[in-house]
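Support reply, case 0932

Customer input (verbatim):
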Amino acid sequence: MSEVDRIHLICDISLIHTNSKWRYPGSWEGYPMYGDPGLYFEIARILERGRFDGAFFADVAGTPIVNGSMDDTIELGVAWPRHDPIPMVAAMSAVTQHLGFVTTMSMTYNHPFHTARMMASLDHVTRGRVAFNAVVSGFPQEAQNYGYETTPDHGWRYERASEFQEVMAKLFDSVEPDAMVWDRETGRVADPSKVHRIDHEGEHFKVMGPLPVAPSPQGRPMQVMAGQSAAGIELTARYAELQFAMGSTDELRAAHRKTLDEACLAVGRDPKEVNPLWAGYFDVVSDDYEAAENRRKYLEQFPAKAPHVFLSQWWGLDGYVMDPGGTVHETIAEVKRLGVGPNWGYLDMALRTTPPEMTIEEYALDRLDDGTGFVGTAEQIADRMESAFYAGGGRGGFMFAPRSGVPAGIERFVDEVIPILQRRGLFRTEYEGRTMRENMFG
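Our regenerated output:
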């Protein structure tokens, strides 16, 4: 097995305080609720002990309206509240030395100069351990918080995102790696011949530059994307190093890997430069009885309305008017016929990742249960991970969320699954480098 045949792991801790997960027996015990960094410090230390590549924070800056009101979203805490994750990343980096952090900023509503400056600064604070999850936002209430009537057109958002990426790349290159001098005798800070204006003028942005940040430890933060549409995959292939991908079976993972590889070749990149992280959740159990009990305890935390609220957020439709017994495929076919769904990418993803017989109610609970599950004994989970990893091309890895008991569920994965992967030569025993990029790509 070559050195590159190694699984990489990111732990998704975006929503451990929402969707009733905070009520799961054993979760958040002994810690103040969301906002206090204490539990996140413990999670960071556990992940670093397990040699995880990083911790991930998604971000959506809106409060969805469901059935004509925000009340259900707020009362049930369905993906709400959502603090800006950047301060927590900075705090968690102070209690770790190797763990990386993936944090999210919207290319639809932010400006590339502000984003490049923020991410380069955060790369300094974390000592080279940050990645930027660049998203094209598709939720209507988020759009309304930034002054739009509703979500801008899909094509416009991706055109803006492409120019956004072009500007960011110019800004990161505007200060050469050896530009800083810091000469105490002469007082000379930097060599001006190695700092450049970019003078960008495009359809969406006009930016003079340069980026007023010293070159960061990684040169530029790592880039992550998650778009599953044709436009999203093309943008990923052109600019990203990692892609959060959905794939509920090995066949779907292989097909997605093929699509991503072809997109990379089409824009002149080596497919090995862009690797998928398969999204899902984990739950380490001793036997089938414990697995069933954990799922029962998990799902019983949800009030009856929670699946309707979550599906409304996820698809941008009113979950209350959908027939819970209707199938996902039939429902989406009708939505497309009517042309009423704003989140077409999520609808297409649902079609690709669900069997034709899955009902709306089953799908909503499955999404609340974090989608594709890696549930079983430590050996069973390691077997599934190995199979999925090679189905996806033997590169990249997984972006996993804990299902039961935070932080206990994470600690059990670290203590039981990681050693098996290490014995099989599938996972590191020590961090390879100093920065996140060095650990992800060697």
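We compared this against your earlier run and they match. Two observations from our side: The chain has one domain: 8-287+371-441. DSSP finds 16 helices and eleven strands in the chain. Please reopen the case if you see a mismatch on your end.
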